[in-house]
Amino acid sequence: MRIGIAGITGRVGRLLVEEVQAAGAVLAGGTTRTPDRAEGLPAACPLFADMSALAEVCDVVIDFTHADTVVANAQALAAKKVAWVLGTTGLSAQQNTAVLKAAEHVAVVHAANFSPGVTLVQRLARMMGQALPPDAYDAEIVEMHHRQKVDAPSGTALAIGRAVALGRGVALEDVRESGRDGHTGPRREGAIGFAALRGGQIAGEHDVLFTSADEQITLSHRAFDRRIFATGAVRAALWVKGREAGLYSMEDVLGLPPL
């Protein structure tokens, strides 16, 4: 099993190197924009300037790079028939379309978060969204991450919000409320609210709250180490090899039955 890593010299990329080796797979190489920061990588690990070159030597590529690289990466992997484990979030409509087009030719596992725990939180959030009526239960999602994180709400928070919206039979874009400030007026019935906090070096914290006049139910997840994301991504890479072309999720990787 030959696994390539996009952005191999980054913080998550280095964790992926360790997890690929721990899983007994072959580290086929990686892409990087900063080859001068390759110190500490295995001596035999080749570095490539672009995805097309990396795809030549891989069965699957794990990609946690920037959204700006998604279209080019999608085209390169589809052309080379190489499976893709994609953890990049904050994609535009054009970038999402590129992922869907790639999935017509290769197996793609796309997830906002590769933690098994977060996968289960999303599933439970969908079930709660379906079971708890929006006119009685207000849904709010609170997340906190390290000070370097540049996007808010997090991709994981939005994925949880989409799960709630799916359970309610609505589109998240139609009911989302983020960053309330000043005189906002009363809370809109059926809204799904988001609050984002930043500080320190927190790997990721997410709380999903359903609150009625009489009770509150909270789903919580705490990531103690970014390694959980790398471990989950490598698990997805080992699972996806040999799968038919299509778009898969971490629920598929975990073997969960469809809701």
From TrEMBL:
CDD domains: DHDPR_N (cd02274). InterPro entries: DapB_C (IPR022663), DapB_N (IPR000846), DapB_N_CS (IPR022664), DHDPR_bac (IPR023940), NAD(P)-bd_dom_sf (IPR036291). The keyword Repeat does not apply. Pathway: Amino-acid biosynthesis; L-lysine biosynthesis via DAP pathway; (S)-tetrahydrodipicolinate from L-aspartate: step 4/4. It is an enzyme of class 1 (oxidoreductase). It catalyses: (S)-2,3,4,5-tetrahydrodipicolinate + NAD(+) + H2O = (2S,4S)-4-hydroxy-2,3,4,5-tetrahydrodipicolinate + NADH + H(+); (S)-2,3,4,5-tetrahydrodipicolinate + NADP(+) + H2O = (2S,4S)-4-hydroxy-2,3,4,5-tetrahydrodipicolinate + NADPH + H(+). GO terms for molecular function: 4-hydroxy-tetrahydrodipicolinate reductase; NAD binding; NADP binding; oxidoreductase activity, acting on CH or CH2 groups, NAD or NADP as acceptor. It is found in: Cytoplasm. NAD(+) binds at G7, I8, T9, G10, R11, V12, G87, T88, T89, A111, A112, N113, F114. Keywords: Amino-acid biosynthesis, Cytoplasm, Diaminopimelate biosynthesis, Lysine biosynthesis, NAD, NADP, Oxidoreductase. Residues 1-114 form the Dihydrodipicolinate reductase N-terminal domain. SUPFAM superfamilies: Glyceraldehyde-3-phosphate dehydrogenase-like, C-terminal domain (SSF55347), NAD(P)-binding Rossmann-fold domains (SSF51735). (S)-2,3,4,5-tetrahydrodipicolinate binds at H146, G155, T156. GO terms for cellular component: cytoplasm. GO terms for biological process: diaminopimelate biosynthetic process; lysine biosynthetic process via diaminopimelate. The keyword Acetylation does not apply. Its EC number is 1.17.1.8. Residues 117-254 form the Dihydrodipicolinate reductase C-terminal domain. The active site is at H145, K149. Belongs to the DapB family. Homotetramer. Catalyzes the conversion of 4-hydroxy-tetrahydrodipicolinate (HTPA) to tetrahydrodipicolinate. This is 4-hydroxy-tetrahydrodipicolinate reductase. The gene is dapB.
